Amino acid sequence: MPCFKYSAGNEKLSEQLKHLLGALKVTPEIGCIKDIAHGIEKESLRVDKNGRIAMTPHSQGLGSPLTHAFITTDFSEALVEFITPVFTSPSNSLQYLEDIHRYLYSQLAEGELLWTSSMPCIIEEDEKIPLAQYGTSNIGKLKTLYRRGLGHRYTRTMQTIAGIHYNFSLPDDFWQLLHDKHQSNQKLRDFKTEQYFNLIRNFRRYSWLLIYLFGASPAICKSFIKDKTDHGLTAFDDYTYFMPYGTSLRMGDLGYTSAAQASLFVSYNSLDEYLDGMRKAIQTPYAPYAEIDKLGNEHQQINSNILQIENEFYSTIRPKRVSKNGERPIHSLKNGGVEYIEVRCLDLNPFLPVGIDETQIHFLNAFLLFCLFRKSPPTSKIENKEIQKNFISVVKEGRKPELELTQNGEAISMSAWAEEILQESLNVAELLDDFDTDNKLTTHQKAVEEQLAKVRDIELTPSAKVLACMREQSLPYFPFALKQSENSAQFLKTKLSDEKFQIFKSVSEKSNHDREEIEQSDNLSFDEFLVNANKV
């Protein structure tokens, strides 16, 4: 078996990528690459018939959000989260995602809809946004308490923003093949973890491209801003603010940002450095958060540290492992290594019923493999600042003609850099298509080419299409988003087959039973449980 190692010196990275792809193509075992696994986690706000956030509780017919495998809630009772099982076929995962939506629509109160945009509907009073409830068990109370803390730290309104998380993993046969190609002396688990961190570092370098290609939140309802005057937005009309060249306000200063986290530097250079940074963040007190504890007699947050728990860290991508029996994520990673990665910077596409389509999934798989295969040197604090600056530049001005980003301290045209990344991703897509026996077409290559078209014509981007639709129909953001939600609802209200309906009904009923068992098994007071929960 031919061996591939990244060469030293000044050889072009694209040549290195081609060298690796060439070596892989002639390896018979590379057929296992067709078994890339993925799962989708998709959030959507429930709204009433007038487009206001729904004040009704999570439907009893949907089971318990604490224990349901596929339907839960995120921050609010009204913020539904759908979770697909793991699939290797994009068409199968999307069909499952549609089926979950259809089951949910069968259980919604009369007139309620799912909001299909990332930025929320009209938000009138922050404190009236209902926190998600998970029952009377200690773990259920902890989940609600965590959300109460988030509301205090970042406002409840900010927590109503919705998006899509894409979980990605490669089969063990592939990791063994790559391990052999590199002639690595590491244990397979350690090699796999190291390679996933290589992928993550490159993803962070190039994630601005995803914001340009899939950002779909260039405008917001004025109710989201409330009394703020320093938002830096432009009035679109009497009811809407926007950024003329913006792509994803969800990922900018108005969305998942935090002054407390801004000072954090969590390194992705190795698992140990990452865990050390996360451990420090969840153990370091933050004085302004200590003031939150004085707001009432009951608990207001899990603790007053920079992060209450690991999930509070707002990152575009996370290394993940399925935890066992309530094990903390940092312990799971430490004990078992990285099992998959979670992409967290994807907006809902309001023109698609479930917010994502097959083309996007095929592209993500090719792009993530490109991030894995390309050389990925360690990230310094200086480069980290460059990464953050590039990301925010595309959030705010991604469609600005002649926009320049910074690469290794030097200015570079965003469109030229995007072309370079996508051309290399096209080479990876070709490898995937060679072994995609289900399609026998250039599926992945076509997906990349569709993204190249967006780079060459900004009007093809989702963010541009949102603004174009609003202008053409003279619609403020709110009625535009409501109309798209109503259109999607018509598609998703199609009745499920009796067989599928009964499957989801059984899962929902079982989740209620599982929640009751957890509640009955508690043997600690909540205060004692909370003390244990804060141990790292």
Topology:
Blueprint: H1 13-25, E1 37-47, E2 71-73, E3 79-83, H2 90-107, E4 113-114, H3 138-154, E5 164-169, H4 172-181, H5 188-214, E6 219-221, H6 222-225, E7 234-235, E8 240-242, H7 259-262, H8 271-283, H9 287-290, E9 317-320, H10 329-336, E10 340-346, H11 358-373, H12 381-397, E11 404-407, E12 410-413, H13 414-434, H14 443-456, H15 462-472, H16 477-492, H17 498-521, H18 526-533
Antiparallel strand pairs: 1-3, 1-4, 1-5, 2-3, 5-10, 6-8, 7-8, 9-10, 11-12
Explain briefly what this protein structure is.
The chain has helices spanning 13-25, 90-107, 138-154, 172-181, 188-214, 222-225, 259-262, 271-283, 287-290, 329-336, 358-373, 381-397, 414-434, 443-456, 462-472, 477-492, 498-521, 526-533, and strands at 37-47, 71-73, 79-83, 113-114, 164-169, 219-221, 234-235, 240-242, 317-320, 340-346, 404-407, 410-413. By secondary structure, it is of the alpha+beta class. It has a single domain (38-533), classed as Creatine Kinase, Chain A, domain 2 (2-Layer Sandwich), CATH 3.30.590.20.
Which series of helices and strands comes N to C? HEEEHEHEHHEHEEHHHEHEHHEEHHHHHH
Query: How many separate domains?
Result: 1
The helix-and-strand class reads: alpha+beta
Instruction: Report Rg.
Output: 23 Å
* Average residue pLDDT: 93
Low-confidence parts lasting 5 or more residues at pLDDT below 50?
A: 1-11
CATH architecture call: 2-Layer Sandwich
**Total strands:** 12
Shape assignment: globular
Q: Write the CATH fold name.
A: Creatine Kinase, Chain A, domain 2
How widely separated are the two ends?
Answer: 44 Å
State the share of residues found in helices, binned by percent.
40-55%
CATH class: Alpha Beta
Strand content: 5-15%
Largest sheet: 7 strands, antiparallel
- The helix count comes to 18
